[in-house]
């Protein structure tokens, strides 16, 4: 039980990488709180995890683009078990492939609110609780933050902002015993990935090409990212902070 009786808050935890993290932490005895605006998926997920255990799970409906909802949900999560040991800022969206001249400033601002401002805000709201436990913060960024992605200038920018925040906060909070790291996944087989592929002319061919980018010839799984998050949330990584860990399955090799 590597996370026994500790509390983790995961934004966007009902599906995809967030759900993969939640399942791993629950399996390791954690008390998992997922925040998500998809009430049906969130309720269904926590029911499953509570049945399988050995940890426990709680779902709180929350739209991370609305700071007042985010603050209320984090405070409720802290009250539920009287502590917060880890915050995983995972919630995010990937818009369809769009050239910069077709990207409206309104769309950019909305994407920033979901992908980056929510990361900043959740950290700000969780910080009083994390100080008490000398906890950890894990930001789920993307390899697009360092490699870029064609017709995804807005998305890549929001993900790069998460990496900059990670490094700045590692300096600011390290002396308080709080470690801050980021995970940069490459191609993970999630509903978000498949929704993005669906916007392309040939989704199946696109997914095959994406899978072939990794040296293993496949995409990663949400659970694999969850296991990396568990490592960063425990004392196994006690000397790591400010790290942007590239979980890319070798996709950037020979780039």
Automatic annotation (TrEMBL):
This is Glucose 1-dehydrogenase. Keywords: Oxidoreductase. PANTHER family: 17-BETA-HYDROXYSTEROID DEHYDROGENASE 14-RELATED, SHORT-CHAIN DEHYDROGENASE/REDUCTASE. The keyword Ribosomal protein does not apply. GO terms for biological process: steroid catabolic process. Signal peptide: none annotated. It comes from the Bacteria. One of its GO terms (molecular function) is estradiol 17-beta-dehydrogenase [NAD(P)+] activity. The keyword Oxidoreductase applies. SMART domains: PKS_KR (SM00822). It comes from Schlesneria paludicola. It holds the Pfam family adh_short_C2. Residues 6-186 form the Ketoreductase domain. Its EC number is 1.1.1.47. Belongs to the short-chain dehydrogenases/reductases (SDR) family. GO terms for cellular component: cytosol.
